[in-house]
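Appendix C reproduces, verbatim, an entry submitted by the partner laboratory led by Prof. M.T., so that reviewers can inspect both the input and the predicted structure.
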Amino acid sequence: MLGKKENGSMERPGSLNTIVGKGTFFEGTLKVESSIRIDGKVKGRIVTADSLTVGKEGEVEGEVTAKNAIIGGKVQGKVHSSGKVILEARSLFQGELKTAKLVIEEGAVFEGVCSMGQGEPTSTVTSGKSLLSGTPSKEPLKQS
């Protein structure tokens, strides 16, 4: 359907038409109108109006601006997402993350600072090599 764009969720991202394949190294700025998948290495800036997927062997060093991001490999730098960021098991994120929604699977490593929502930061992790594996909190979570 030409000219018709659905209000997509993470389950229905836009068309994937850009892939940085395994064994590929790119340095510079990538601007993509739809989704992009990284299975190689990218150093620089990535801007996409839709989703960024970093495969299990993919590596990104730099600044990312995307609607949604699924990280299965390594990301170092800044990620700005207006939608949802998913850190898959065995992924590594180091840096600054700003997103509306965050999912961290068991086994993912998050090392850095996270700001969620449009107000002030609500979550900060600054200890080195924090392994987030579902350790229970002493206080119950408040639901809004």
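The longest strand covers residues 25-32. Additional entries are available on request from the coordinating office.
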